[in-house]
């Protein structure tokens, strides 16, 4: 009796937790694993498992293809029923869509945590394990990310509610970034046992968190879905003999792609976002290199560690402030201000030169913080594109996951272009090859006319500085050009949201305490 009372009391307490908090907590269970993965998977296979260079690049190439294709593939499999305009498809209610996303999260979340564990124990030859782990991990990460991002569009329509959901996602992502600091206490290439235990603990917390949070959300929306289903059944009984309003027609993948190719705001957005993804990953890939060659002899090791750590947490914390600005001025204007700020800071750094140590510290950290912060806001723009796609093509239900997948298909190649373009420019300018055991000596061999390793280091320092400032200047100019052609803001955005809100089949569920 006491146990039943306890369970009933816990469920009653769980019903009080706002939907936005439960939605945001899912970001925590993703970020505690993904941040550790990003930091250590390359070092683990290169330094611990001793993978060779050819196998590493073959694995990364296959991963690039899989990473780009699985987003639209999983999005199509998830949302193809929503692209149907026949009568049965029209009866899918918004709560039922939310429940479908939550079932996917409750299933794929724990599997995502298990795939994370496959990296940290040697169970196959390094080349095979590298390829298998990357593809398996990214497959479940994509399934989780698509469902989670689609919920942002499916749970709410108004800009204020979506910003509130994103706010909680950023707050919990910032908490999840603390796993990066904890990981330094356990990371040891010579003794991997402690780090493995740490990863097992993280995976257990993540798997349990996905099960609990998605279970509570499913319980919350199941009653509403049942009520909508009963109402629809009653309406069908009253309308016996009347012709359905929708035609019996399915939208094929080819037709959907043609519709998307005519969606001008989508095309301008992905053009801008491709550059944004490139810049985000460029900063991540070359952050340690910039610290080493521009600041290592001028700042302490603890200051360098602080800059590295703050660059992971600050974007999430800063995003909380950006979201309040979005509620006041709109996402479009905030993103444009961030592009202008990036261009201004980069130009000032270029004028200041490589010898301004404190300015370099601020710029290296702020460049990553503002760039990552912009990435966090762009999901809100994608949700607006989901609304416009629904209105323009008169869909019965928004294909949220599929549109997020199509955005990823076009923009994810920026992840691979970033290290390739960066290392190519650095090698062309300085002769520096990061894959050599002694890259400075290698640069001397490539450019014997340059003289001593000290002279090469000066050239390398200048090359890093110009990469640091010219890449964001170029990115900001391209993004401002594309963003100026994006029209889904102001009155047009309000009109689109009003049409979706008033649509009989597109009404959002009651998200209660969001």
TrEMBL record:
<dbReference type="InterPro" id="IPR036259">
    <property type="entry name" value="MFS_trans_sf"/>
</dbReference>
<feature type="transmembrane region" description="Helical">
    <location>
        <begin position="266"/>
        <end position="284"/>
    </location>
</feature>
<feature type="transmembrane region" description="Helical">
    <location>
        <begin position="465"/>
        <end position="483"/>
    </location>
</feature>
<feature type="transmembrane region" description="Helical">
    <location>
        <begin position="20"/>
        <end position="42"/>
    </location>
</feature>
<feature type="transmembrane region" description="Helical">
    <location>
        <begin position="304"/>
        <end position="322"/>
    </location>
</feature>
<keyword id="KW-0472">Membrane</keyword>
<dbReference type="Pfam" id="PF13347">
    <property type="entry name" value="MFS_2"/>
</dbReference>
<dbReference type="InterPro" id="IPR040035">
    <property type="entry name" value="TMEM180"/>
</dbReference>
<protein>
    <submittedName>
        <fullName>Major facilitator superfamily domain containing 13A</fullName>
    </submittedName>
</protein>
<keyword id="KW-0812">Transmembrane</keyword>
<dbReference type="GO" id="GO:0016020">
    <property type="term" value="C:membrane"/>
</dbReference>
<feature type="transmembrane region" description="Helical">
    <location>
        <begin position="105"/>
        <end position="123"/>
    </location>
</feature>
<feature type="transmembrane region" description="Helical">
    <location>
        <begin position="334"/>
        <end position="354"/>
    </location>
</feature>
<keyword id="KW-1133">Transmembrane helix</keyword>
<feature type="transmembrane region" description="Helical">
    <location>
        <begin position="193"/>
        <end position="217"/>
    </location>
</feature>
